[in-house]
Specification:
Four Helix Bundle (Hemerythrin (Met), subunit A); 0% strand; mainly alpha
Length: 206
């Protein structure tokens, strides 16, 4: 009888502890879900990417760069529903960002473009890492989204600058060629013929 009472008491304590653990677990799950919901709302408000305006020629180069066009398109398609959608989105962005070094158009295949791409890829990878943490650091993620927008616009600006410089170099080259041609073709009356020798002698006698 004594052992039965003891067993019942131990069983009651264990059941009570299990209920308490279960309750605490439910609270933790609820808290985690609330945190993710808040993170989703914050990120959802921030996820707005705007592209800078480009000249027709620079825009044509960007449009013909298939990897860049796909990356920008993926970036502008805003995820919906849950934080998981943003996590999937950043995974896709990492894959597309890593392909940007392929098939860079010859007109803009320059060291400065590759440097911009490296910075952009770094931001995308960091965004993917932080948005997939169990406890998402909202401020860090928001900052990375803003930085990514800056990097996208900076790369577009770099394309524009390369296009503008190519026109300046062409104009300078044309001017040098014109100067060279002008130097070779001297006007017919630029040099007056010398007076005949006889006329010079007559002038000296007078």
């Amino acid at each position: 009888m004594k052992y039965t009472i003891t067993f019942c008491l131990l069983l009651t304590i264990l059941l009570s502890a299990c209920k308490e653990d279960s309750k605490m677990h439910e609270i933790e799950i609820k808290k985690a879900l609330q945190e993710k919901e808040l993170a989703f709302n914050t990120i959802n408000k921030t996820w707005n990417f705007t592209s800078r305006s480009m000249s027709p020629e620079a825009q044509r180069i960007a449009n013909n760069w298939n990897e860049w066009r796909l990356f920008v398109s993926e970036l502008n398609q805003k995820p919906k529903g849950t934080i998981s959608a943003f996590q999937t989105k950043t995974k896709s962005l990492v894959q597309k960002a890593q392909e940007l070094n392929n098939n860079i158009p010859a007109q803009v295949d320059k060291p400065q473009i590759k440097s911009r791409l490296m910075a952009l890829i770094t931001k995308v990878k960091a965004l993917h890492t932080f948005i997939n943490l169990d406890r998402i650091p909202e401020k860090k993620v928001v900052g990375l989204i803003t930085d990514l927008n800056v990097e996208v616009n900076a790369l577009q600006g770099q394309i524009e600058e390369i296009v503008n410089r190519s026109h300046i170099q062409k104009e300078e080259g044309e001017q040098e060629m014109l100067n060279s041609i002008n130097g070779m073709e001297a006007p017919s009356d630029a040099v007056k013929p010398s007076a005949p020798k006889e006329e010079e002698e007559e002038g000296m006698l007078k």
